[in-house]
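Run log, item B.
One chain of 212 residues. Sequence copied directly from the ordering sheet:
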Amino acid sequence: MAELKIGEQSKPRFEFRSFGQCFCEQHKRMARLSVPVPEKVWERTSDEIYIISKKNDINNTKIRGGKMDIKTYVQTVDGLEQWNPLMKGEFPISREVLEKEVFPAFMVEMPALDKDTYTLDEFLAMVKANPDLAAVRVHKQRFGYMVNNTICEVGNVLINGAKVVTINSESTEIEDIKKTIADCGLEGVENINYLQAIKRVIGMIDKPLANE
């Protein structure tokens, strides 16, 4: 089997991810079990904006560096989620893309669009005006690992300033992820994707995170 490389696109990957206040012991195990990884993924930081919709849990929309990325949920197998790219776009963004791809992905009423293109600020203003949408600022500090040939990370995440911790393992191979979950002491921990975690933190969903 071809080795999975961090940062390399391959067939759609399955993912285990969770969010909570501390995965200290699991992080320690993950770091010790990891093979050496490229220096560029030792530690990465990014600032992103997630567009969260009350009407939709299957399309994950984020904006980073002036670019919009939407992934769509495909299936869950053995408790692991698989997501596929749905669209990628850049700002300024065309009215056609907003009408045909972006707002349909949110599953909300289409705003009146009277311009040919929209800047990021104009788009965020439309999001803010819609009671079913929220633009949530997310800062990530991520530490990359590789365990059992799965791409892993532990991240300190600020969701509108609220600090939580995330831990994950992803691969095209389900059995490799399940072994990593067991090896890192994550068995029985709830699988929570970014959409769900953000909705819980901002109060759109009335549920706690995994280890609260």
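Observations after the first pass:
- The mean pLDDT is 94.
- Residues 14-202 form a domain with the Hypothetical Protein Pfu-838710-001 fold (CATH 2.40.320).
Flagged for discussion on Thursday.
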